[in-house]
Amino acid sequence: MHARSAPQRPRPSPPDQGWALFLDVDGCLLEFADAPDKVIVPLGLRERLHALSEQLDGALALVSGRSLEALDDLFWPLRLPAAGLHGLERRSRNVEHRAPIASQLLRRLCAEAETLAIDHRGAMVENKRAGFALHWRAAPQAEHAMRAFAESALSQLVGYRLQHGDRVVELLPVGGDKGGAIAAFLEEAPFAGRHPVFAGDDLTDESGFRVINARAGTSVLVGKRPDSAATFGLLDPADVRAWLGMPGTDHDDGDPAR
């Protein structure tokens, strides 16, 4: 296990039976890849998450920018409580909210974005049905064009917003965020009445950190980003997996996002 901690932030204690545990996925549980469908789920992670969920009496949820459908595909056969699309979608024990279906205009803009990405090798568009994300992790030269397209597309849409992240910008309906999703979970069994803990790496996780801090919980930044509301730190996804109680060194052979 890692013995190091992120700069200026102490390492969080290991998971406790009294926790309500919320985990971001990309950049937190899993290393980033050039494209979302290329991420690798490390060997044993699904089993460890299942064991943790049982240890916490079901009070473990994924909180991600991916859709609920994409999360289920990624961690199949595991099906955990989850918030998808940065809180626009949420599934708990008794409640499931799905994002609205894309309009014809949104579908057209997504197709235009895909055409733009073809002109910038390595750039890509992730269709999230209720919105879409423009990625340039593998094409840093495309950042200006992708951001400009997102701004132009936003000006044509009503009720949408831009969600900025690490080498990605998303167009999503105005509505929930990760903090709101976590707050909703904490009002319901089995999460209510427990010590809340949230680990995440990106700007999109800051609303979650603020909700956790307001409840005297444990907010954990993954990585070295200096400006964050998080009060604890871990170095990287391998460090997160070690913190959760698994080595996190081997990977499923040929099993990127299922």
Question: What report would you give on this structure?
Answer:
This protein is of the alpha/beta class and 258 residues long. The protein folds into 2 domains: 19-98 and 176-256, HAD superfamily/HAD-like (Rossmann fold); 104-173, Trehalose-6-phosphate phosphatase related protein, domain 2 (Alpha-Beta Plaits). Helix content is 28%, strand content 23%. It contains 7 helices and 14 strands. It has an 8-stranded mixed sheet with strand order 6-5-4-3-1-11-12-13, sandwiched between helices. Helix 3 (104-118) packs antiparallel against helix 4 (143-156). The two termini are 27 Å apart. 46% of the residues are buried.
Quick gist of this model?
This protein is α/β, with parallel strands linked by helices and about 260 residues long. It is built from 7 helices and 14 strands.
CATH architecture of the largest domain: 3-Layer(aba) Sandwich
Give the total of beta strands. Answer: 14
Work out the count of structural domains: 2
Task: State the major sheet.
Answer: 8 strands, mixed
List the helices and strands and how they pair.
Blueprint: E1 19-23, E2 40-42, H1 45-55, E3 60-63, H2 68-75, E4 82-84, E5 89-91, E6 96-97, H3 104-118, E7 124-127, E8 132-135, H4 143-156, E9 160-165, E10 168-173, H5 178-185, E11 195-200, H6 206-214, E12 218-222, E13 232-234, H7 237-243, E14 251-256
Parallel strand pairs: 1-3, 1-11, 3-4, 11-12, 12-13
Antiparallel strand pairs: 2-14, 4-5, 5-6, 7-8, 8-10, 9-10
Helix pairs in contact: 3-4, 5-6
Give short descriptive properties of this protein.
258 residues; alpha/beta; Rossmann fold; Alpha-Beta Plaits; 2 domains; 8-stranded mixed β-sheet; 4-stranded antiparallel β-sheet; 7 helices; 14 strands; 28% helix; globular; disordered N terminus; disordered C terminus; Trehalose 6-phosphate phosphatase; HAD-like_sf
